Amino acid sequence: MMKLKIAIQKSGRLHDDSIKLLKECGIDINNGVNKLKTEASNFPLEVFFLRDDDIPQYIEDGVADIGIVGENVVLEKKKQVNIVEKLGFGKCRLSMAVPKTMEYSTVKDLENTRIATSYPVIVNEFLQRNGIKAEIHEISGSVEIAPGIGLADAICDLVSSGSTLFMNGLKEVETVLKSEAVLAACHNLQPEQQILLDKLLFRIQAVKKAKN
Ligand code: PRT
Ligand code: ZN
102, 127, 151, 210: which is deepest, by most CB within 10 A? Predict the structure, then answer.
């Protein structure tokens, strides 16, 4: 029988809620640690555990049919995938932040600054949309320390509570994007896989409805 292949985050902020959502959909998966993949016992579903950054590519290539990943990652990676459902967890925003001592009133204040971020594609689009010229410095982690060490004047990073910014003497000045975990799917699914996806989606929507 044909199986639906789903990619979820191997470890990190979305892992537990992704597994929990599948459980709430009545899907039993034995989640062995350090396993690359596993199968559901009561639904034709194969589960791949991957780094979130790799998930859009796997879906575009059809190695996975669907996946659970932050919308921020889908947009940054610019892969051809369909966002089929917002999942209501992993909520955050991608925001511009500057040192709290900097005078900031409008987005024009970002003109000619150096902005550190792990999201160069999304930040570039934001700057273009607002007609701002600035220098983007791509760094992969600990973006919030960049202004303090003189590497950048501003940062653009994910924020949820805001405490990381606060602890680093930064203030949030622009929301670039609001994000949450989404179910993304391959553009060209086989008819059998589309039927399985519809079945899974129906259950996900029922779970979401029950929570409201
Ligand atoms: O190992 P892998 O590559 O799979 O994981 P990762 O380390 O790249 O990602 P991970 O697990 O940190 O985040 C996965 C996804 O969770 C992100 O892509 C977002 O869609 C979502 N998410 C939700 C967040 C946050 N909230 C969040 N607060 N991702 C990161 N953060 C970080 C942020 O970068 C900053 O360092 O948390 C810090 C800020 O948190 P506050 O609460 O202090 O504001
Ligand atoms: Zn990642």
Answer: 127
pTM assigned to the model:
0.96
| CATH class label, 4-90+180-211 | alpha beta
Which of 159, 165, 167, 179 most suits a substitution to test ligand 1, by most atoms within 8 Å of the C-beta? 159
Instruction: Measure CA of the first residue to CA of the last residue in the chain; give whole Å.
Output: 35
Ligand 1-lining residues (CB < 6 angstroms):
9, 12-14, 51-53, 70, 72-73, 90, 92, 157-164, 179
Domain 92-178 class in CATH: alpha beta
Q: Where are the domains of the chain?
A: 4-90+180-211, 92-178
Query: Residue 42 has which token pair?
Result: 């009561």
pLDDT digits (tens, 9 = 90+) for 56-97: 999 999 999 999 999 999 999 999 999 999 999 999 999 999
Both tokens of 156, joined, read 């653009």
